[in-house]
Amino acid sequence: MSTQLETMRDTMRDAVPRYRRMTAADLEEVVAIEQAIYPHPWTRGNFADSIEAGYHCWIVECAGAVAGYLVVMAAAGEAHLLNLSVSAAWQRRGIGRQALGFALKLASDYGARHILLEVRPSNRAAISLYTAAGFAEISVRRGYYPAGGLREDAIVLQRTLEKHDS
């Protein structure tokens, strides 16, 4: 019985998200996740450029696997959440919500007073996540995203941050 309990405890501990900085060694796996979950994914170059530019690029690990990642640019009292993604295998487990909390705290710790992001109107799950976290629509960028042969608008969302936000 105690072995089964220890195994269950280890499994639960391993499922708790852990964060570490993204490196070039992560790019193959990150790009594979990106390509699997988006019809118009970021490229390897987008991620490599973000790392090279000094953006806050983080890996979310669960049970030893890359469950997701995020990219935040913070400067001059503002932050921009450029990418927050969760692998299909790890979606609908609260990892996106936890990663968003990590991004908010990160932005706050770097002195941002506001954080903004763009999201496709068709991405209802992401919009629900962001509005539940206190983001509000401030603008629409017309034709921002590629969408097959057409373009899709982007909803611009913003949230005010408190010191040590989470």
How would you portray this structure in words?
- The chain is of the alpha+beta class and 166 residues long.
- It has one domain: Aminopeptidase (3-Layer(aba) Sandwich), CATH 3.40.630.
- 34% of the residues lie in helices and 36% in strands.
- The protein has five helices and seven strands.
- A seven-stranded mixed beta sheet has the order 1-2-3-4-5-7-6, with helices on both faces.
- The longest helix is centred in the middle third of the chain and has 15 residues.
- About 4% of the residues have low confidence.
> Would you tell me which CATH topology applies?
Aminopeptidase
**Order of helical and strand elements:** HEHHEEEHEHEE
CATH superfamily: Gcn5-related N-acetyltransferase (GNAT)
Query: How much beta, percentage-wise?
Result: 35-45%
Q: What is the terminal-to-terminal distance?
A: 38 Å
CATH architecture: 3-Layer(aba) Sandwich
Extract low-pLDDT stretches: 7-13
The residue-averaged pLDDT reads 90
User: CATH first level: which class?
Assistant: Alpha Beta
The helix-and-strand class reads alpha+beta
**Order of strands across the biggest sheet?**
1-2-3-4-5-7-6
Tally the structural domains: 1
- Shape, per Cα inertia axes: globular
The main β sheet shows up as: 7 strands, mixed
What is the radius of gyration computed over CA atoms, rounded to a whole number of angstroms? 17 Å
Q: Which percent bin holds the helix content?
A: 25-40%
Q: How many strand elements?
A: 7
